[in-house]
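Anyone up for a design puzzle?
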């Protein structure tokens, strides 16, 4: 019954586009079809396969060649530019968390088939104190949307954040790596599993690197990452 009700709301009740404010029908996306077409999509074929850095002609970027991160492959849905940047910030810091799942495309890009070898999804965790302050974990919202499309289980408690670290956005590139060092702990049996680590934005890659390193130490065979948006810059110092 709830699925029928959701279908009715999505397809028969007009909703206002977050960007142009026009009313539109069809689908649970936060933006109208015209605005969806203008969103800054991340392109796999022109990006670094390891850290998803754009504009590398599909080759490993120089930083990943010199100092490869702990994760093996990375994917993104969008570039972290306007208006995606503003929508994500509103969702995280203005309490409009429902916008995150509504930004998920109705169908994943052509690289979705590459994720068939993934065993489980793991959301990057918040520290309990940060979770109480914010009221939700944005990466769990994204993971729930991805799990339904990929038909994969979620290991929601496989990773925890054991230190309440400073907000990464407030720190310099160098300080970000120090800030998250030994910030995570792994739980449960991950032996031999290839997992997909989910986050909202990849900037320096420091948090994803440290979380991946923790999961590998706990027995995971490989860690891939998927983020809602990727910034143009890459990993800025040695992991």
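Challenge accepted. My sequence:
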């Amino acid at each position: 019954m709830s699925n029928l009700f959701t279908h009715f709301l999505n397809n028969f009740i007009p909703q206002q586009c977050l960007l142009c404010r026009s009313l539109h029908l069809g689908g649970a996306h936060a933006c109208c079809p015209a605005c969806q077409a203008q969103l800054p999509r991340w392109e796999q074929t022109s990006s670094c396969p390891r850290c998803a850095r754009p504009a590398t002609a599909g080759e490993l970027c120089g930083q990943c060649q010199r100092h490869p991160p702990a994760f093996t492959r990375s994917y993104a849905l969008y570039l972290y530019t306007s208006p995606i940047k503003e929508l994500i910030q509103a969702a995280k810091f203005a309490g409009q968390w429902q916008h995150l799942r509504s930004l998920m495309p109705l169908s994943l890009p052509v690289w979705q088939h590459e994720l068939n070898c993934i065993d489980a999804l793991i959301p990057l965790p918040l520290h309990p104190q940060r979770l109480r302050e914010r009221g939700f974990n944005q990466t769990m919202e994204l993971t729930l949307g991805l799990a339904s499309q990929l038909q994969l289980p979620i290991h929601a408690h496989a990773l925890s954040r054991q230190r309440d670290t400073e907000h990464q956005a407030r720190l310099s590139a160098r300080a970000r790596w120090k800030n998250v060092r030994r910030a995570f702990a792994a739980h449960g049996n991950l032996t031999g599993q290839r997992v997909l680590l989910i986050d909202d934005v990849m900037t320096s890659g420091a948090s994803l690197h440290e979380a991946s390193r923790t999961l590998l130490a706990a027995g995971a065979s490989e860690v891939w990452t998927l983020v809602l948006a990727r910034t143009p810059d890459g990993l800025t110092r040695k992991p």
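A detail worth pointing out: Residues 1-10 have pLDDT under 50 and may be disordered.
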